[in-house]
Amino acid sequence: MNQLTTYAQQLQTLVVLYLPRVFMAALALGVGWWVIGRVSRVIAKTTARLDVSLRSFLTSLVNIVLKVLLLISVAGMVGFETTSFVAILGAAGLAVGLALQGTLANFAGGVLILIFKPYVVGDVIESQGKSGEVREIQIFNTILVTPQGDTIILPNGATSNNVIVNKTAQNRALVEIPAEIDAANDLATVRAWAIPLMLADAQVLPDPAPEVVVTALKPGGMAVAFRAYTHAGQNLPAYGRLIEQLQQALGRQGVKCPVPVSHTYTRVLPE
């Protein structure tokens, strides 16, 4: 009987001691959970202009971090020792950070690309020695597709820290067709028929105007380039048409190609 009385007194003491803590912890949990929901909605609204993938990732990340902190705080209010939890979380975070430092760098690069937009889906870019059309911008990688049908996966960390050449940011692309002609040809005459021929193509832009320029001088001839601009994404079809039309026009206009020059060397033997 005395033992039951002792248990009852201990139970009463525990209830008196911990019931207010449990009540306050439950209240803090409910209020905190509601506040976290409001904060998540505010973040979703303020980041509405960002990419959908980035917006959802940031919202869920903030939501999870705040809920973990809330649960640790509530546990401390009840009376649990939270130092060990914090130490475990810190050690786990450090281990995960060291193991995933490359992935985290790619994530940070993806966030920077999505925020500052050095390129968007549909642009043709060159980075890290690779070139192609941007098909998709993911959190960790950028997906390129080449005209040959190859798929190139660029890590965002390295891409954001290297030179990026955006070939279609100005909504135009260069079509350049090189050729070699004889030095006796009059360049002004070549320009007189070549520029109207390029302008006659429906996809060639009048501004910047097409041009014919000398790119190199060679024995018996010169290297020229027929240059024209199209809208982004129209350069490859225009290239195919123009190279065929220019090849036929060179023959019709009587433009001569340089004759290869052979050099004969005479070796004088000592007497």
UniProtKB/TrEMBL annotation:
**According to the lineage, what is the superkingdom?**
Bacteria
Specify the protein's topology with respect to the membrane: Multi-pass membrane protein
Q: From the Swiss-Prot or TrEMBL record, give the protein name.
A: Mechanosensitive ion channel family protein
Q: Give the Pfam families listed for this entry.
A: MS_channel_1st, MS_channel_1st_1, MS_channel_2nd
Q: Which UniProt keywords apply?
A: Cell membrane, Membrane, Transmembrane, Transmembrane helix
Family under the similarity heading: Belongs to the MscS (TC 1.A.23) family.
Query: Where located?
Result: Cell membrane
Under PANTHER family, the record lists: SMALL-CONDUCTANCE MECHANOSENSITIVE CHANNEL
Q: Is the keyword Transmembrane helix in the record?
A: yes
Naturally occurring in which organism (per UniProt): Hymenobacter fastidiosus
Q: Where would you find the membrane-spanning parts of this chain?
A: 15-36, 57-80, 86-116
Domain Mechanosensitive ion channel MscS residues, every copy: 103-167
Q: Which InterPro entries match?
A: LSM_dom_sf, MS_channel_1st, MSC_TM_helix, MscS_archaea/bacteria_type, MscS_beta-dom_sf, MscS_channel_2nd, MscS_channel_C_sf, MscS_channel_TM-2
Coarsely, its chief localization is membrane
Per UniProt, residues of the Mechanosensitive ion channel transmembrane helices 2/3 domain are 61-101
